[in-house]
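[retry 2/3] tRNA uridine(34) hydroxylase: previous attempt timed out, resubmitting with same input.
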Amino acid sequence: MHRNPPYIVAALYHFAKFDRFREFRPELEAVCREAGLKGTLLLASEGINGTVAGSREGIDRLLEFLHAQPEFAGLEHKESWAEKAPFLRMKVRLKKEIVTMGVPDTDPTQIVGTYVEPREWNDLIADPDTVVIDTRNDYEYAIGTFENAVDPHTSTFREFPDWVRRHDNELKGRKIAMFCTGGIRCEKATAFVKTLGFEEVYHLKGGILKYLEEVPEEESKWRGACFVFDERVAVGHGLKPENYVLCRACRHPLTPEETRSAKYVEGISCPHCYEKRTAEDRARYAERQRQIELARMRGQRHLGSE
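[retry 2/3] tRNA uridine(34) hydroxylase: success.
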């Protein structure tokens, strides 16, 4: 990790029976604001999920508070760093699910796949009997994934269960190894797949982020960059920020080459969405971008840039 990181970025989640999530929200919001944190935390009856950033002291204050809650005593988190503030504000939101798959009664506290440590992952995915599945969305897969990983071509996690059902015959009799950014999608994905009767179901413990942190680049089976949902856009080995920017119109990560395209206009369009937007859409995005530029000239940050 960076020796003196200006911002510590903490990604966390924990599945637990958490019926008091609504009344817990104000207390959690107060702790985050007192600690000077920015980011988003989601609360639901099934637990907590989110990413926040701030000082070392602020992150430690939040973790101490969460670990003091009986439901989250076993909560684990992953840390990386950022040179600039990766979030603009602090949000604590109430949800039906802390990661939305849309399959009722999928409960990772009752059934889940076998965890595989990052340093054991290479051996598993090198096995010819293993099918390696990237459970993330298509735009995340596009900028980086593991060698020989299958892309389900999903635009949201809600589409993943149907993809599994459609490929049931191809998956039968195989070892199924799944991965995602930080591990939370795979908690639900492996739980769902296990309910369908598949037995050898595995997932990467700590997700891609933990793998990139622990596995030396020269031994790595990861190719490309890992998309992250903050202003860094993507990170690579050692969790170092990569050279990507985000299209503010469609949220697709862009390479330096793509930003040189005639179809790329900051805040308005990019090669991935240019043909999908109407003139009215682009006019609306142009006005938002104008407001962002005005705020930048005043030394402020416009919330529309988030």
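[retry 2/3] tRNA uridine(34) hydroxylase: The chain has a mean pLDDT of 93.
[retry 2/3] clearing retry counter.
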